[in-house]
Design goal:
This protein is mainly beta. The protein is built from 2 helices and 8 strands.
C-alpha cells in the first residue's frame, strides 16, 4: 500500500522522487471526477455545479479538511488562471445556501449567481478532471460507501 514503507527504502525513494511523500489511507482519500451527470467529459469551456445538501457537506467526511482541485487531463497539473486560485476547500470563504446546502462552481468565468469563494476557474479549452481530497477520512469516505453528488452542466 502506498505510504506504508516499512523498511523498503527503494519504494520510499521512488515515491519521494515523484512527489514529497505518499499518505496512507487513514490520512487521506482521493476521489477523481472526469465526467458530468450525463457521462460527458468535463471541459473547461463549460460551467458545472456540484451541490451538497446541508446534511451531506464535505466536512462531514473529513476529520481535518477537504479540498477539490481541477487538473488538466493530459499532465494532471492544476489549471492556470489569472486569480491563481487552484482549489476550493473549507478555507475558501464559502457561502452556503439559505437551506444550508453548499454549491461549488467550476467554470471559465464566474457565473453571476456564484459567490466568489465558491467558484474555481477552469480555463484552457481542454478536458480536465477534479480531484477531491478528504484528509482524515471518516464515515462513508473511510468505509467506501460515499459517492459524491453529480456534476451538473449548465446550459450556455
Amino acid at each position: 500500500m502506498c505510504g506504508t514503507y516499512g523498511d523498503d527504502w527503494l519504494a520510499r525513494s521512488c515515491i519521494d522522487y515523484g512527489g514529497i511523500w505518499a499518505n496512507v489511507l487513514d490520512e487521506v482519500l482521493y476521489y477523481k471526477g472526469r465526467i458530468d451527470s450525463t457521462d460527458a467529459h468535463l471541459h473547461s469551456d463549460n460551467t458545472y455545479t456540484l451541490t451538497f445538501p446541508k446534511d451531506d457537506l464535505p466536512a462531514k467526511y473529513a476529520t481535518y479538511f477537504w479540498s477539490v482541485i481541477a487538473v488538466d487531463a493530459k499532465h494532471m497539473r492544476v489549471l492556470p488562471n489569472p486569480l491563481n486560485r487552484f482549489l476550493l476547500n473549507n478555507q475558501s470563504k464559502l457561502e452556503y445556501g439559505k437551506d444550508g446546502s453548499l454549491t461549488l462552481y467550476f467554470a471559465p468565468e464566474k457565473p453571476n449567481d456564484a459567490p466568489e469563494g465558491n467558484w474555481l476557474p477552469t480555463l484552457g479549452r481542454q478536458n480536465y478532471s477534479l480531484t477531491f481530497r478528504f484528509y482524515g477520512p471518516r464515515g462513508g469516505v473511510a468505509d467506501g460507501s460515499y459517492y459524491p453528488a453529480p456534476l451538473v452542466k449548465r446550459p450556455r
